[in-house]
Write a structure and sequence with these properties.
The complex is a heterodimer of chains A (about 80) and B (about 270). Chain A has about 80 residues and is of the alpha+beta class. Chain A has three helices and two strands; from the N terminus they run H-H-H-E-E. Chain B is α/β, with parallel strands linked by helices and about 270 residues long. The chains are: A alpha+beta (about 80), B alpha/beta (about 270). The interface between A and B is medium-sized, with 17 and 19 residues.
């Protein structure tokens, strides 16, 4: 990250920075758009529980609701750190 | 059947009212009987941009509450005889507009043989913005090439797809993206999102690109919508956008850096 920050600053192409930030953010927000209100809270509480045992990043827990045919599928994924810190 | 077009954005200050005024003038100039309604209850400004602020006697809320009839409240434009303005009220009561009240006014306007009703939405995603978009057939989402505006536009696109009458009936509001305050020079330098960037992020093509230009402020100063200044790039870009809304095929203009020739260097700074 640090190296890329340095490069983009040198090129001063802040438009690319804006585009990448927006892409990530909007994808995230679209995922939550039609989701039930409890999802953000569920995500936060899951994160708290996991962090009791594993030192994960604050954005390590992803909670998504998918439609799979007639069923709603709650998709929870947790990104673990590469090695124990 | 009157077609209802909402001009919306989420974020404030991106050019909704400027756009509403110019679209309404452009549609009227194209021979369409057009009404433009200010939904920004409490903070009316469309009357100023249209240049009819001294002729507002009755407003939208008066009509909704039955204190005036539609004929009394519709202000006839002095430039186009088929163009009318319905001003917002200055009342502070946020609940002055109701869904039923707005629906009745829109139906009454449609019954007068109007071709287009342009709804100028307030900023935000509160009741006024919701009511402005609820009955829309089409939406013009005004967006600046800037992160917060693009993000808010995506929110608004989400609302258009879920919180409108069309959406509730399983149909879709026809969405158009209008990119305003665009500066090809800054895009070339890499410090402004390009048309392609915005289209890609929002997943929607532009119906028009309005270049950043000093005439927009001059027009609002004098109460003459910028589309009527056909010597300005912004005005001409609005003319093109209206033509596209009416189904014409027009290439984009003023979206690349102008190479200044000797004469333009002499006469323009």
């Amino acid at each position: 990250m640090g190296i890329f920050d340095f490069l983009t600053q040198r090129n001063k192409n802040t438009a690319n920075v804006a585009k990448n930030r927006l892409r990530i953010l909007i994808e995230q927000e679209r995922g939550l758009r039609d989701a039930p209100d409890y999802l953000p809270l569920l995500q936060r509480e899951l994160l708290e529980v996991i962090r009791k045992y594993i030192n994960v990043d604050v954005d390590a827990v992803k909670v998504d609701l998918h439609k799979d045919g007639e069923h709603n599928l709650l998709d929870i994924s947790v990104a673990l750190p590469e090695k124990e810190s | 059947m009157a077609e209802i077009i909402v001009v919306t954005s989420g974020k404030g200050g991106v050019g909704k009212t400027t756009t509403s005024a110019s679209l309404a003038c452009g549609l009227a100039k194209a021979g369409k009987k057009t009404a433009v309604i200010d939904f920004d209850v409490g903070l009316r400004n469309l009357d100023l941009i249209m240049g009819c602020e001294r002729r507002v006697v009755y407003d939208f809320v008066n009509v909704v509450h039955g204190e005036a009839n539609l004929k009394q409240a519709l202000i006839k434009d002095k430039r186009f005889e088929n163009l009318y303005v319905l001003a917002a009220s200055q009342t502070r009561d946020k609940d002055a507009l109701t869904k039923e009240g707005v629906e009745k006014v829109l139906n009454d306007i449609a019954a007068e043989g109007f071709d287009f009703i342009v709804c100028d939405s307030p900023a935000g995603i509160e009741k006024g913005a919701f009511l402005a978009m609820y009955f829309a057939d089409r939406a013009v989402v005004v967006v600046n090439p800037e992160v917060s505006s693009v993000r808010d536009s995506d929110r608004i696109l989400g609302l258009l797809a879920s919180k409108t009458r069309k959406a509730e009936n399983g149909e879709r509001v026809q969405e158009h993206l209008l990119l305003t305050r665009y500066s090809p020079e800054r895009v070339e330098k890499g410090d402004m999102l390009s048309i392609d960037d915005v289209q890609e992020i929002l997943g929607l093509n532009v119906i028009g690109v309005i270049p950043e230009s000093p005439e927009v402020l001059q027009s609002s100063n004098s109460g003459v919508p910028v589309i009527l200044d056909e010597t300005s790039n912004a005005g001409m870009a609005y003319v093109d956008a209206v033509a596209r809304i009416l189904g014409e095929d027009k290439p984009l203009r003023f979206t690349t850096v102008e190479k200044k020739g000797f004469f333009s260097k002499m006469f323009r700074s």
